[in-house]
Amino acid sequence: MVELERVGYRIGQKWLVRNIDLKIEAGQFWIFVGPNGAGKSTLLRLISGELAPTTGWIRFFGESIGEYSPRELAQKRAYLQQKRDVNFPFRASEIVLLGRHPHLNGTKETATDLAIAQEAMKQVQAEMFAERLYPTLSGGEASRVDLARILAQEPRLFLLDEPTNHLDPRHQVQTLRLCQSIAQSGRTVITAIHDLNLASMYADQVLMLREGSPIAVGTPEFIFTPQQLEAVYDVPFEVMQLSSGQLVVVPLSSDSIPNSYLDTQPSIVEI
Amino acid sequence: MPNRAQILLILGISLPISLCVAAGVGAYQILPWHIPHILLFHKDGFEVLLYVRFPRVLLSAIVGSVLAISGATLQGIFRNPLADPGLIGVTAGAGLGAAIWIVLIGGGFLSIWGVPVAAFAGGVLVTIGVWKIAQTQGRVLTVTLLLAGIALNSFAGAGIGLMTFLADEEQLRSLTFWLLGGFGGATWRVVAVTLPVATVGAVVLFRLTRALNAMSLGESEAYHLGVSTESLKRWAIFGVALTVGAAVSAAGGIGFVGLVVPHLLRLMGGADHRYLLPGSALGGAILLVLADLFARTVAVPAELPVGVVTALLGGPFFLWLLMKFKKEVVYG
């Protein structure tokens, strides 16, 4: 579905990402992790076609991404941005309907478009603030409305930059479960998130970045080892496995002793 | 929130009514319902209506409506409710063009054609200048567009100041009148020149409404929704330069219509540009027709410049917006 070959992107003398080789298949849920400034967002924007790579190639459905018009791309991939600000009094339902933009031919949405937008709001439990003005929503509510907009766009490829920001734990988990089920339905999801525990719970594949370069690619079990995490984040890590199989990834303050931390919570930890 | 179709319908009915009322009021009073009779049977007042009042109210309606849709479009492009057609330099450029013509070339009241042509050329040239300066590696960043507009605005302002300094008494008078704006010179010829240019510009802007909605989410979000943002901005600036260039060359600098009207419509029916542009076109026309009516009747036999009237209305309104904005930002 998406192939990256020796992709690099430079602003002035600084490489924001470099030497990226990736092959992302349909039906996969990818998560990009790495410290602030590691190039996660830049890489997502390169894959979205918004930025053109300085070096290398990006192929999207077998064709060079530059060959697509913005509209053609928007029919196939959606992008959720971290920061958002809308200065005009749009209602939440109107924001969701904007997701239909690449599919519209006339100036008006059809009944089908309205139904799709409605369904998308239902999926993220945003229908109760459909009629409220978007600028008055809380961060978490606005995030869900944006997510509904992406769903209404009906793309094959979802690119989500920090989709769990501003969300409470329940909606974090629900959002990532939604991503997982989207991937299971044969579409593709790529997200960047900071929460390593959530990443380990849901990702099929993880790409770990540092200073724009790929450090490791693979399944969460393969990526989230204390050695690799410390090498990337510059703090020691403890990785544990709960009896359910779920990984717990915790950073340690550098001067603390790992064992003493474990002693306090022995009951839930299986080493 | 009232239904948008209802708002448009009410505005659509109010516009012809205000046109008729404004056409009737003046030194020679004509009741609106007598207008058809007078026109059909060439009764008393036929000449006044046909050659004085009609071109004047029509021109003010055209100018008001294009100023308002240009304002709505620029606010959409800049994603800022405080944007105004003056921002991209078209108004100041037109003023400079007119000033240069009045002081250095034509002079006095004789230049019936020279001033509007020079004003239109000045407006379009300065806008192209702003666009070229804002261009960086083939893209136009909204921020640089804004800053380039500010830079060229002050440059054009300095030019106008210089022309004012050089002008003799009579030139100064016509320059001041022109800069303040007004419809005293409205004739069918002016309408015939302004209407086609304004229409072309307005058609361009009306095609952008859906893309402007997407733009409200931000430039990169609009791109991700399939909008060609560079071409959107290019068409928007082109349409605004045409419409505002035509408006300013016909009636001088009339401020605040482009700011106030879209705002009122957003308050009434929300932000969807598919409603906002037609609503602004109607609302701007009504507002300026009534403002001109006020301007020419309040101090009879003298006539206030209509730009002064709109500024009198617009100033407090702008302040009110600012206060509201401060409240929202500071107190959450």
Helix content of chain B: over 70%
Strand content of chain B: under 5%
Strand order of the largest sheet of chain B: 1-2
The oligomeric status of these chains comes to heterodimer
Poorly predicted runs of chain B are none
What is the rounded Rg of chain B? 20 Å
**Mean of pLDDT of chain B:** 87
Count the helices of chain A. How many?
10
Largest inter-chain interface? A-B, 32 and 25 residues
Which regions of chain A contain 5 or more consecutive residues with pLDDT less than 50? 266-271
Number of strands of chain A: 12
What can you see in these coordinates?
- Chain A has helices at 40-48, 70-76, 92-97, 111-123, 139-152, 169-184, 196-202, 220-223, 226-233, 258-264, and strands spanning 2-11, 14-24, 29-33, 55-60, 63-64, 77-80, 157-161, 188-192, 205-210, 213-218, 237-241, 247-251.
- Chain A is of the alpha/beta class and 271 residues long.
- In chain A, the strands form 3 sheets. A 6-stranded mixed beta sheet of chain A has the order 6-7-8-3-9-10, with helices on both faces.
- In chain A, helix 6 links the parallel strand 7 (157-161) and strand 8 (188-192).
- In chain A, helix 4 crosses helix 5 (139-152).
- Chain B is mainly α.
- Chain B has a single domain (4-331), classed as ABC transporter involved in vitamin B12 uptake, BtuC.
- Helices cover 77% and strands 1% of the residues of chain B.
- Chain B has 14 helices and 2 strands.
- Chain B is globular and about 60 Å long.
- The chains are: A alpha/beta (271), B mainly alpha (332).
- Chain A binds chain B through residues 45, 48, 50, 69-75, 77-79, 81, 84-91, 94-95, 98-99, 101-102, 104, 107-108, 153, and chain B through 79-81, 209-210, 213-214, 216-218, 220-221, 223-229, 266-267, 270-272, 274.
